[in-house]
């Protein structure tokens, strides 16, 4: 129970203000519990004050929220926003520190009229399976029921009803690649404004399916078709939002699955009926989402057979965006064995080799042991003699998804071996757009074969370039073969792992 003096620091819903004050905070992390290492506080990029406000104008969650505040004449009050590359379970010490800073920051920033949270949806902490549910509940307890709290999410969230009940609005990005993050954050801010001005309280219902959704783009195929139905249902005037959370299958928590969250202005029954209807449609069409998995050799053969060039080969199973090391060598080895020419692999993560190339300098020829330094699952190191063609510091600005935001790949090098370019970077990230290639002097439109590590975000920057897209799925921590991961916490059979998986709306 909050003390009365604490509660009085926050404005009630009925108080009129000349300029609403909207707190901006969040912790965003996609947790792959099958990664061996814990995620520590030092792994997070933490933005405070001006660093948060500087995200205005970027196509990110926080950027969209800030732009909406400016447009509607609201005052954005930066608290703290923390994010980290997808990785292993978050240490309890790290989470407790971040959570405490947000709670203390909210108290110090009072009075406030609403809270916007930049979240992911698949956060897991040591001892806490639902980061977002825990954080949202703690914030709700802190500020009371009168303050609107909304959040925007990655659609790969494993979300809970507890989390939804602590919030007033749940807005997952609709698209994968996530080209609409800023737009969904804008809707979250709009809901806070509308709640204050119109004095209503939304309700949300989360309908969860025992379905481990493969990484499925919404740009084409069954993902695009399902999203069209979601957007059509969202046109209901009494519905504030309808979010399809694909879920994150690379985690072992009780609430793993695929989720439909409906937020209604009229009633809980309306939200529940809408969510159940969409969930039933998704379950009935689940077989359409079963992926085709090609080994590295099979993917290279398919690329060689393609007539429409350039061919983009995406290595989905070593996608840093899902927590992998990014240093897998399966696909690169297959490309070298096939002696592909007019080709580039962009990029493999190997801090040691990148540093070695920078120390040698442009024009040097060096012997390297490339990749596979994290584990044996992602391949074996490649012993190569390479030519150092160009170097870069890795500090770039994203131009496709999250456009306008800065990214740091660390020291980067363009190495040439047997006529093929290999880009090596120091910091983990998937390849989303063409900037890493351009930084090192490579025009991908002139290539026949472009290889990269990503499941679907690469489509934001490469769809218009690619003549053909081939997906490689060799062994890795984000393979489509989700059946290889041991699950100790699942409470019911899950599709497609278990034939007994079943869903019946109650």
End-to-end separation: 34 Å
**How many extended strands?**
19
CATH homologous superfamily title of the largest domain: Response regulator
Helix proportion? 25-40%
What structural class do the secondary elements suggest? alpha/beta
CATH topology of the largest domain: Rossmann fold
Task: Write a short abstract of this structure.
Helix content is 28%, strand content 22%. With 506 residues, the protein is an alpha/beta fold. It has two domains: 4-11 and 19-288, Response regulator (Rossmann fold, 3-Layer(aba) Sandwich); 296-479, no CATH class.
Note the main attributes of this structure.
Rossmann fold, 506 residues, 2 domains, alpha/beta, 28% helix, eight-stranded mixed β-sheet
């Amino acid at each position: 129970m909050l003390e009365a003096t604490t509660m009085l620091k926050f404005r009630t819903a009925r108080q009129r203000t000349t300029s609403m004050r909207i707190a901006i905070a969040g912790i965003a992390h996609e947790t792959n519990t099958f990664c061996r290492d814990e995620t520590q506080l030092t792994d997070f990029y933490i933005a405070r004050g001006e660093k948060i406000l500087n995200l205005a104008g970027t196509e990110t969650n926080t950027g969209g929220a800030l732009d909406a505040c400016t447009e509607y004449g609201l005052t954005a009050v930066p608290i703290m926003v923390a994010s980290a590359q997808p990785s292993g379970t978050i240490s309890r010490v790290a989470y407790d520190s971040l959570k405490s800073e947000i709670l203390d920051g909210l108290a110090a920033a009072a009075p406030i009229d609403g809270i916007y949270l930049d979240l992911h949806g698949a956060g897991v902490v040591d001892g806490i399976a639902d980061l977002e549910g825990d954080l949202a509940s703690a914030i709700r307890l802190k500020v009371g029921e009168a303050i609107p709290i909304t959040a925007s999410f990655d659609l790969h969230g494993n979300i809970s009803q507890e989390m939804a009940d602590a919030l007033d609005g749940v807005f997952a990005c609709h698209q994968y690649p996530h080209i609409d993050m800023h737009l969904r954050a804008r809707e979250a801010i709009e809901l806070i404004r509308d709640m204050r001005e119109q004095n209503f309280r939304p309700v949300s219902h989360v309908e969860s399916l025992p379905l481990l959704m493969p990484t499925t783009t919404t740009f084409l195929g069954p993902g695009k078709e399902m999203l069209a139905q979601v957007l059509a249902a969202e046109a209901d005037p009494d519905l504030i939002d309808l979010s399809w959370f694909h879920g994150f299958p690379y985690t072992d928590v009780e609430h793993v699955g695929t989720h439909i969250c409906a937020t209604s202005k009229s009633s809980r029954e309306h939200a529940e009926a809408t969510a159940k209807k969409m969930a039933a449609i998704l379950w009935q069409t689940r077989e359409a989402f079963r992926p085709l998995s090609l080994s590295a050799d099979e993917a290279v053969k398919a690329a060689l057979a393609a007539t429409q060039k350039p061919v983009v080969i995406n290595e989905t199973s070593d996608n840093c965006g899902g927590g992998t090391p990014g240093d897998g060598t399966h696909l690169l080895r297959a490309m070298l064995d096939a002696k592909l020419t007019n080709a580039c692999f962009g990029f493999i993560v190997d801090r040691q080799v990148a540093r070695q190339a920078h120390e040698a300098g442009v024009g040097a020829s060096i012997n390297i042991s490339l990749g596979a330094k994290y584990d044996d699952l992602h391949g074996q190191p490649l012993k190569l003699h390479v030519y150092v063609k160009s170097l870069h510091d890795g500090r770039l600005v994203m131009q496709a998804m999250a456009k306008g935001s800065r990214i740091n790949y660390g020291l980067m090098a363009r190495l040439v071996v047997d006529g093929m370019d290999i880009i090596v970077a120091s910091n983990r990230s998937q390849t989303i757009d063409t900037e890493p290639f351009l930084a090192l002097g490579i025009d991908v439109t002139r290539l026949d074969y472009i290889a990269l590590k990503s499941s679907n975000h690469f489509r934001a920057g490469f769809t218009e370039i690619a003549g053909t897209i081939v997906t490689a799925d060799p062994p890795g921590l984000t393979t489509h073969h989700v059946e290889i991961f041991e699950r100790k916490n699942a409470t019911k059979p899950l599709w497609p792992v278990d034939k007994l998986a079943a869903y019946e709306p109650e």
